Amino acid sequence: MVHGLDTVGTASEAVSPEDTAGFERFIAPINYIVVVFSSVALVIASFVLSYSVASRYFFHFSTDWQDEFSVFLIVGAVFMSSAAVQARRGHVAIEVVSHMMPPRANHIRLFLVDVASLIFCAYFCWKSWLLLHEAIVEGFRTGSTWQPPLWIPYSLMTCGMLLLSIQLLLQVANHMARWKKPV
Amino acid sequence: MSILSIGLLYGGSTLLVMFAGMPIAFALGAVATIFMIAFMPSSSVDTITQNVYEEMASITLLSIPLFILKGSAIGRSRAGQDLYGALHAWLHRIPGGLGIANVFACALFAAMAGSSPATCSAIGSAGIPEMRKHGYSGGFAAGIIAAGGTLGILLPPSITMILYAVAAEQSLGRLFLAAIGPALLLVALFTVYAMWRFRREYVHAKAAYEKSGTYSEILRVDELSLRDKFALLPRVLPFIVLLTGVMIALYGGFATPSETAGLGAVLALILIAVIYSVWSPRDLEPILVATLRESTMLMLIIGMSLLYSYVMSYLHISQSTAEWIVSLHLSRWVLLTTILLMVVVLGFFLPPVSIILMTAPIILPPLRAAEFDLIWFGVIMTIVMEMGLIHPPVGLNIFVINNIAPDIPLRDVMWGVLPFVGLMILGVVILCFVPGIATWFSDLVMGPAIVSK
């Protein structure tokens, strides 16, 4: 089924097999901290934009940094929390076939899907790192009057994709551990 | 390879990985990346992440998480129930008033929260039990809520409209204003239907009572005092005035969409803190976590969809398809009907956000060539996608309803919803004949469009 914009909570991932439990213990708190910071970032962005309306309306200040500052906060929050969302399988997919396949084939399908997602995210992460590196070396800045350095959002994007790749690696490892020890 | 075969391969592989169950965001990104590596110069592959970042770093798109924050703050407070209770107290004397109160509550809530499933669960969790207690059939009650909830993607601040504005390069303020008239039209259609259906169920119940003495709750007339009418207003009015009034004023041009979104989120957080004392970190946590989860999921889909359509246009797939459609010389209305049918079919599988971003580069040029007003079309397309949220097989709202009222059989829900799908089709037809319903209000507020092509 397609779950579009639902806020209904998705079930959390089943308890991971022992082989990967230590790994899980390591990444779960990181995800929690990231979620807290990202939430705060969204709220700060809301206040910054409200301030921008107020300052323009009441004091006739021109707004220069508010938009970009909010962009950095929100883009950062989105990329950084993508691993936490993946941990709860919150990235929506079309699940029509899962109802038509026998359980064993379905497990293989899920495994392949996770491997493919992992490869894509790892590649994207690597490319983000190259971009970040270039931005630091060349000192890229945005084209606005405020001119903040671009390594700030790029590093958030790279870190977020790295976390997401690690999360996917963990889920792939979980699949394999489950195969070794059939329940 | 010819453009045709690349195009077919592109579409085919996308369908394959999506139906294999790969998350939509990663599926779109992966297909786009593979085709970039295979068919595009390596220099463009190197800028892939920069591309995604620059598409996503648009301040208009980033208003989406803030609108979601505003919606989930309101959706997770008691505002929905109170709004519904207040409307019920005022409308209960009208035949079918309870159903009408639900339609209105959905519309008002949708305008505050901007999310269709959130509207369904907030109004439905109070409204469905109440309607059933009063003898409404399960399917009818579910239909009202499911259909009312879809107004969430039509009324401002609708996330799908934001994406359409970005994809079609149209003014978001104008688009938001243009949606108001058609939304009121749908509310009117739903209301008339609710009254008629109530009348029918009432007559049936009355006949059954006179014949066999089986009493139905639908025959009972509620008596609510003047006090009931005013009891909830102090809690409800601030929400309506601040969140719809202020927002509509801002869309008129005082603030950018993202500023409106930020201010809306702040106002919503302040209102739930003051009125419902939701302010401690523990109270706010579920709101923020839900916001983050939904925003991240959506923004990644949006970023990857934009990469996907960038590759599609770089490889001339979208242009060629669009030119091909234009060269068919279909009559205007055949073209429109075909495109809308395609949107309906896509709506079986994909959420509205991906439909807009993936199809816009293909369907908008032919529509522009056929001299359709793209603001008007945005409204029409949104209503058609609203239908996708409630029609079987996969209407999202149906499952939300199933969640909050599990005792109504899914079959009844689906049958209850179908008449509303019909009403929406009727709405689309009316808008085709009288486009002024959409364009009149935006032209009034913002002045006539400067040839909005």
Question: What does this protein look like?
Answer:
The complex is a heterodimer of chains A (183) and B (453). Chain A is mostly helical. Chain A has one domain (23-180). In chain A, 70% of the residues lie in helices and 0% in strands. Chain A is built from 5 helices and no strands. Chain A has helices at residues 18-59, 66-80, 82-87, 103-138, 151-180. In chain A, α1 packs antiparallel against α2 and α4 (103-138) runs antiparallel to α5 (151-180). Residues 1-15 of chain A have low confidence and may be disordered. Chain B is mostly helical and 453 residues long. In chain B, α7 (97-113) runs parallel beside α9 (138-150), α7 runs antiparallel to α11 and α8 (116-133) crosses α20 (396-404). Chain B starts with a helix and ends in a 7-residue tail after the last helix. At the A-B interface, α1, α2, α3, α4 and α5 of A face α1, α2, α4, α5 and α8 of B.
Give descriptors for this structure.
heterodimer; A: 183 residues; mainly alpha; 5 helices; elongated; disordered N terminus; B: 453 residues; 22 helices; 79% helix; globular
Compact summary:
The complex is a heterodimer of chains A (about 180) and B (about 450). Chain A is an all-alpha fold and about 180 residues long. Chain A is built from five helices and no strands.
Topology:
The complex is a heterodimer of chains A (183) and B (453).
Chain A: H1 18-59, H2 66-80, H3 82-87, H4 103-138, H5 151-180
Chain B: H1 3-19, H2 24-39, H3 42-46, H4 48-56, H5 63-75, H6 79-91, H7 97-113, H8 116-133, H9 138-150, H10 159-168, H11 172-212, H12 226-231, H13 233-254, H14 257-276, H15 281-314, H16 317-327, H17 332-347, H18 352-369, H19 374-390, H20 396-404, H21 410-433, H22 436-446
Helix pairs in contact in B: 1-2, 2-15, 4-15, 5-14, 5-15, 6-7, 6-8, 6-13, 7-8, 7-9, 7-11, 8-9, 8-20, 9-11, 9-20, 9-21, 10-18, 10-19, 11-13, 11-19, 11-21, 11-22, 13-14, 15-18, 16-18, 17-18, 17-19, 18-19, 19-21, 20-21
